[in-house]
Design a protein that fits this description.
This protein is mostly beta strands and about 375 residues long. The chain contains two helices and 24 strands. A hairpin with a 4-residue loop joins strand 9 and strand 10.
Length: about 375
Amino acid sequence: MSKHKNSTLSEGRGHARSAVRLTARLSVAVSVAAALLVSSGTVHAATQSASIAVSGTVITSSGKAAAGTMVAIHAWPDQAVIQALKVGQAVPWVLVGTGKADASGRYSIALPVAKLAPEESYGVVNLEADTSSGGTFFPVAVTRNAGDSYLPSAKVVVNLTPGHGAFPGCAGTGWTYIKDLGKHVGTVGESYVLASHSTQGFTYKSGQSSSIGVGWSNSGKTRTFTISGTFSWSSSLTETWPTFGANRSVWYQTQFKFGEFSCYVPAAAHTYYTDHVNGFAGGATIKTPTAIPVTPGKFCVHQIAGSTAQSNNSSAVTWSKSLGIGAGLGLTATIETGFDTSAQITYHFSATRLFCGWKSGPGGIPQQLVVHT
């Protein structure tokens, strides 16, 4: 599993991690204990653990510890249950843990794997952490499988700041499915060949997980949603794109389904909204890259004629803006898929060529790979 931070791509490629701007009255810092690792709201846990220990800090908007604040963590149901929901039905989420912040604002909550396992799909459970003043989504991997092994092992701090559409958390009330938002295209892979005598192919296998941004809104109106954490979704079929030839670069895209959910909070006498992925539609389309990653010579190796290289252990790239998922939604949702054994890029060389990485050599954590003459 990678120990490198994710990169961010917008229209072309970026060099900085995507900033997650969230809104609420408190600041919730989610970190991890020994069995739990979080990155971009994504968590990995050891399979043998009897529980997953989620720890963090609750801080007020003025930067002070929010002593005594209760934190509740709910598990959303597995993918089959979410996909089967009809408009007007409540989401049957499950309370899996609660904790109280100490005098320093710190909390620690042990989530029993026995409670999480019934809600998992392809080894992943989507969780929601809420206080009385704010919440966020993050998926956890309760078992390791080929389709989520790319998720990096780094910590994340989620800052919730008032003044930009702040909303109370949804703890204790729950969500209702209110609208089908249809299918939307997301980028799940990329390959770059700037030379002759080289080919490239990409496969997105059944069970592959992608982490997709979740939108929150005070009103549910278009362009009022801000990203608040991520929701994982795993493909239910395998998509294999054609093999593309020399002097060509490709962004690989497929479609995900989205839904809108509402939560009425009696204490605020207000309804809040979230848009997030609720299905995998599939399909295989491509887009021509508008930019090519810069690969330093120190990150290049030689590939002789007749050789084949497959990348299946690389940190995820976060796609955003026009390469994220946005058309027809009230937000542009980020999407993050790495190269692993279920989202695999393959290059074949019929002449000796340079094979280069963006963040390291091809055998390390390159994140993006480019073939040169």
